[in-house]
């Protein structure tokens, strides 16, 4: 009888074993198959196809006429490409810093439970609902010296006032930056506000008891606790920076001259304007490298140093 009971207990334990992990949440995994296939075939497949043809002499049509790194040598010897990379660096660095700082400051102000919070939040977020083309056109009018800010200020009596960034090749990228900040800061503000609202009120009470000032509390306590929120905001901003195109086309079309060129516009013009597929694919590959450089810190911040418990 003891042997029998032991056998029953063993059978129960075997029956109670958790299912194999591969079959866990099977329905959700099946539902994800189309997305996985799409990402694999379209993204990875097309990216690989583009990289391969970036080493060819393809012109109007793709062909496997390999020329080694010739396309990349031509790319990095092109003044237009170098200007576009420089503009992207300036735009990206300024956009990253100012969007994070302004977005966090606005979120911190709204988190103080001010009056008409919903109204202000709507006003700040509204520009994000507009397309980049509309934003670019609006700011093209605002920055136009004939009827924009410069004209209005001069009409008030300051005849010597000058503000025409879109017509000055030295500062045109900053005119584009203004439009980008106006549109993107609202979204980052909402993300930061959600992070701030997730902070336990007891933490604020404890810092007040310890006599820590508000600014120091944000810098020493709150911001370190919001690391995942900042990482998410950082990736969203960075992904928008690399593919900036609409704003440039709507505001300046790359002018004056080529002073406001960006990599995405260079790729588009090379592929469809000059019909030089090899050169366009090389530029696209360099943009892919930029995206990978952005993703590496993100993956490290999200998963680096984490060990299985």
UniProtKB/TrEMBL annotation:
<keyword id="KW-1003">Cell membrane</keyword>
<dbReference type="Pfam" id="PF00528">
    <property type="entry name" value="BPD_transp_1"/>
</dbReference>
<dbReference type="InterPro" id="IPR035906">
    <property type="entry name" value="MetI-like_sf"/>
</dbReference>
<feature type="domain" description="ABC transmembrane type-1">
    <location>
        <begin position="85"/>
        <end position="300"/>
    </location>
</feature>
<protein>
    <submittedName>
        <fullName>Lactose transport system permease protein LacF</fullName>
    </submittedName>
</protein>
<feature type="transmembrane region" description="Helical">
    <location>
        <begin position="281"/>
        <end position="301"/>
    </location>
</feature>
<dbReference type="InterPro" id="IPR000515">
    <property type="entry name" value="MetI-like"/>
</dbReference>
<comment type="similarity">
    <text>Belongs to the binding-protein-dependent transport system permease family.</text>
</comment>
<feature type="transmembrane region" description="Helical">
    <location>
        <begin position="30"/>
        <end position="52"/>
    </location>
</feature>
<keyword id="KW-0812">Transmembrane</keyword>
<feature type="transmembrane region" description="Helical">
    <location>
        <begin position="171"/>
        <end position="196"/>
    </location>
</feature>
<feature type="transmembrane region" description="Helical">
    <location>
        <begin position="122"/>
        <end position="142"/>
    </location>
</feature>
<dbReference type="GO" id="GO:0055085">
    <property type="term" value="P:transmembrane transport"/>
</dbReference>
<keyword id="KW-0472">Membrane</keyword>
<dbReference type="GO" id="GO:0005886">
    <property type="term" value="C:plasma membrane"/>
</dbReference>
<dbReference type="InterPro" id="IPR051393">
    <property type="entry name" value="ABC_transporter_permease"/>
</dbReference>
<keyword id="KW-0813">Transport</keyword>
<keyword id="KW-1133">Transmembrane helix</keyword>
<feature type="transmembrane region" description="Helical">
    <location>
        <begin position="88"/>
        <end position="110"/>
    </location>
</feature>
<feature type="transmembrane region" description="Helical">
    <location>
        <begin position="217"/>
        <end position="242"/>
    </location>
</feature>
């Amino acid at each position: 009888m003891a042997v029998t009971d032991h056998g029953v207990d063993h059978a129960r334990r075997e029956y109670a074993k958790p299912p194999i992990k591969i079959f866990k949440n099977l329905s959700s995994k099946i539902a994800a198959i189309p997305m996985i296939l799409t990402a694999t075939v379209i993204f990875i497949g097309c990216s690989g196809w583009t990289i391969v043809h970036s080493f060819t002499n393809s012109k109007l049509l793709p062909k496997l006429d390999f020329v080694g790194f010739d396309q990349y040598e031509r790319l990095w010897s092109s003044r237009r490409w170098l200007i576009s990379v420089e503009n992207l660096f300036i735009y990206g660095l300024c956009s990253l810093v100012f969007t994070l700082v302004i977005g966090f400051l606005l979120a911190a102000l709204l988190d103080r439970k001010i009056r008409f919070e919903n109204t202000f939040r709507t006003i700040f977020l509204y520009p994000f609902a507009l397309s980049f083309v509309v934003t670019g056109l609006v700011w093209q009018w605002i920055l136009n010296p004939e009827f924009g800010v410069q004209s209005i200020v001069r009409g008030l009596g300051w005849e010597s006032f000058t503000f025409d960034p879109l017509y000055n090749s030295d500062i045109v990228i900053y005119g584009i930056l203004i439009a980008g900040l106006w549109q993107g800061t609202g979204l980052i503000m909402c993300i930061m506000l959600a992070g701030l609202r997730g902070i336990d009120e007891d933490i604020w009470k404890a810092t007040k008891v310890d006599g820590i000032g508000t600014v120091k509390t944000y810098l020493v306590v709150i911001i370190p606790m919001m690391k995942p929120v900042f990482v998410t905001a950082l990736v969203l901003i960075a992904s928008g920076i690399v593919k900036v195109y609409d704003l440039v086309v709507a505001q300046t079309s790359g002018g004056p001259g080529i002073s406001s060129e960006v990599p995405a516009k260079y790729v588009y013009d090379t592929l469809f304007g000059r019909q030089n597929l090899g050169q366009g694919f090389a530029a696209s590959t360099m943009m892919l490298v930029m995206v990978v450089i952005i993703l590496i810190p993100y993956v490290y911040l999200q998963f680096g140093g984490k060990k299985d418990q």
